[in-house]
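Predict the 3D structure for this chain.
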Amino acid sequence: MNIVVDQEIEYIKSQQQQLNFVVLSEDKNKITITYENQQLAFTITNDGFQTETDFFETFESMLMNVFPSFQQHFMNEIMKKLK
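Done. Predicted structure below.
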């Protein structure tokens, strides 16, 4: 996978309201967000998303794995778009 870091940062910022998270800080390719009062710091690379302990190919897969309740929220958003 080849991620364009700047484009991915803009995508993440644009999805805050729809996906119910908040970007707390951004320092080049290092981002910190909060979701349901839990913080997550991660680094965006050309290959994907690196947390302190894990690597994910997509932003959404990272959120679904780190925040179990995000999976249901994300599926609800997909179903809205399919209608």
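The first helix runs from residue 5 to 14.
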